[in-house]
Amino acid sequence: MADTMTMRVTRYEPDLDHEPRTQDFSIPLRDNWVVLDGLNYIKDQLDGTLSYRWSCRMGICGSCGMMVDDEPVLTCATFLVDYAPGPIRVEPLANFPVVRDLVVDISDFIERLPRVSPWLVRHEDEPVDDGEYLQTPGELAEYEQYSMCINCMLCYSACPVYGLDPGFIGPAAIALAQRYNLDSRDQGAADRLDVLIHPDGLWGCTFVGECTTACPKDVDPAGAIQRYKLTAAIETLKSYVEGPS
Amino acid sequence: MTGPGALPRTYRPRPSIWWWVRKRSYLLFVLRELSSVFVAWFVALTLALVWSVERGAEQYERLLDVLSNPFAVALNVVALAFLLLHTITWFNLTPKAMPIRLFGARVPPVAIVAAQWAAFAAVSAFVIWLVVG
Amino acid sequence: MPHRSAEPLAWLAFSAGGVLAAVFAPVVLFLAGLALPLGWISADHAHLDDVLSHLLTRIVLLGICVAALFHFAHRFRYTLYDGLQLARYGTVITAGCYGLAMLGSAAAAAVLLLNR
Ligand code: SF4
Ligand code: FES
C-alpha cells in the first residue's frame, strides 16, 4: 500500500478569492489516521494558513463536519484508508456560506435552534418538596434517541430542501423539538407546534431521508419529522372539530 | 482587514438546477416523487375503464384495442414500474413515519413492511379474482 | 390552538392517497393497462360490467381516485418546487396542482356516480 495520499482541500480566502479553489497536499496515509489527522498534518507541517474547525476528536463536539468526497461526515470519525488510494476531496459543509477555507457560517443554524424551545418547558413547577420528576425506562426510551444530537449540522448539509430554501427550519431543529415533546416531564408541545406548523416548519420536508443517512448519531431526523407531521395534522383536525377557542 | 462592524464576506454557492443528478440517492428521490404523475395516470385509466365498460361491450373492446397499441403498452410498462417504485418506497418509509407499539413493545420495522406486503398480496389477489371471476 | 392552515389537511390527503395508491394502483394498472389489452387474461364484458357497476365498487373506486389525485397534487407540487426550483411561483403551482386534483375528482364523481 502506498504510504502517502493526495488530499484535495478547498481553499477560500475572502480577501483574495472570488470563489473557492482547491489545493492538493500529499499526506502520510496511516491506518489509524482520520481525515482530521490529515488536516492537522497539513496545518502543522505544510501550510499553517489552512483554516478548519475541530475540538474533541472523538465525535462528540460536532464541530468537525465537512464534505469528504461529496458526503457530509465528521472528519474525526472518517478514516483515510477507506478512501485509499485517493485523492480524497475535503470541502466545507454544503448548504452553508463559506467563511474561509473549510469554515462555514453557522449563524443561521444557531439562530433557529432556540425557536423550538429546546429545553424542558413547565407551565407549573411541582413543589421542590415533592422531589424529582421521575421517569420510567419506557418514558426515557420514547425520546432518548433524539437526545443524542450533537448539533453537527451534517443533516442540514445533506438536506436538498434546506439547500434550496434556507428558510426551512431543518432536520435537527425538528428532531430536537421531538426530543422535548416526547419527554414525559415537558409541557411545551403546544408552543413548539405553533412554531413548526408554520410553512417554514414541517411541511417543506418531502422525506428525502438523506438527513437520517448522514447523521453520525442515529438520531433519525427524517423519522422524527414524519412522526411530527402526523401529530401536527391530528392537532389541526382536532382544532377544526373543537372550533376556535 | 475588515472595518469595525463589517460582516465577513462569505461565499454561498448557488444550488444547481441539476442538484438531483449529483447523487444516486437524490436521483432515486426525484424518481420516487415523479411516480405521482403515474398515480394520476392510474386514476385516468381506471375511469376510462369504468366508463367504457358501462357503454357496452363494443366500447370496451375499442378501449382494449387502443390500449394494445405499442405506445400505450410501453407507457403502461413504464407506469407500472413507477407505481411499483412508489409502493416499495412507501412501504419502506411507513415504519419510520409511524412506529407501532403492540403490548408495550416496538414492532420491528421489518414486521411492519412485511405486513404491508401481505396486505398488498391479498388486495391484488382479490382484485384479480373479482375481474376474472 | 395550532395555526389553521390547509397544509396539514393537504398532507393527510397526500398520505391517505399514498397508502391507497401503494396497495391498489399496481394491480389495477397491471390489469387495465397490460393484462386485459394484451389478452394475458380475459374477462368477459358482462361479468366486468356486473363487478364495476356495483355500488360498493363505485364508492371504493371514488375514494381511491380522489385520494390518489390529491396525493399526486401534493407530491407533484413539491417536485416542481424543489426539483425545478420553482418555489417562487408557489401560488400558481399550488393553485394549479390542487385545482387539477379537484377537477379530476369532479370528473371521477361524474363518471362513477352520475352515469349509473
Ligand atoms: S440530527 Fe444528527 S446529523 Fe443532525 S445535527 Fe444532530 S447529530 Fe448532527
Ligand atoms: S472533532 Fe468533535 S466531533 Fe469531530
From TrEMBL, chain A:
GO terms for molecular function: 2 iron, 2 sulfur cluster binding; 3 iron, 4 sulfur cluster binding; 4 iron, 4 sulfur cluster binding; electron transfer activity; metal ion binding; succinate dehydrogenase (quinone) activity. InterPro entries: 2Fe-2S_ferredoxin-like_sf (IPR036010), 2Fe-2S_ferredoxin-type (IPR001041), 2Fe2S_fd_BS (IPR006058), 4Fe4S_Fe-S-bd (IPR017896), 4Fe4S_Fe_S_CS (IPR017900), Beta-grasp_dom_sf (IPR012675), Helical_ferredxn (IPR009051), SDH/FRD_Iron-Sulfur (IPR050573). It comes from the Bacteria. PROSITE patterns: 2FE2S_FER_1 (PS00197), 2FE2S_FER_2 (PS51085), 4FE4S_FER_1 (PS00198), 4FE4S_FER_2 (PS51379). The keyword Transcription does not apply. Residues 139-169 form the 4Fe-4S ferredoxin-type domain. One of its GO terms (biological process) is respiratory electron transport chain. Pfam families: Fer2_3 (PF13085), Fer4_8 (PF13183). Pathway: Carbohydrate metabolism; tricarboxylic acid cycle. Residues 7-96 form the 2Fe-2S ferredoxin-type domain. Its cofactor is [3Fe-4S] cluster; [2Fe-2S] cluster; [4Fe-4S] cluster. Coiled coil: none annotated. Binds 1 [3Fe-4S] cluster. Its EC number is 1.3.5.1. It catalyses: a menaquinone + succinate = a menaquinol + fumarate. Keywords: 2Fe-2S, 3Fe-4S, 4Fe-4S, Iron, Iron-sulfur, Metal-binding, Oxidoreductase, Tricarboxylic acid cycle. NCBIfam families: dhsB, PRK05950.1, PRK12385.1. Belongs to the succinate dehydrogenase/fumarate reductase iron-sulfur protein family. This is Fumarate reductase iron-sulfur subunit. It comes from Jiangella aurantiaca.
UniProtKB/TrEMBL annotation, chain C:
The keyword Transcription does not apply. One of its GO terms (cellular component) is membrane. Keywords: Cell membrane, Membrane, Transmembrane, Transmembrane helix. The chain crosses the membrane at residues 12-43, 55-73, 93-114. The keyword Transmembrane applies. This is Fumarate reductase subunit D. GO terms for biological process: fumarate metabolic process.
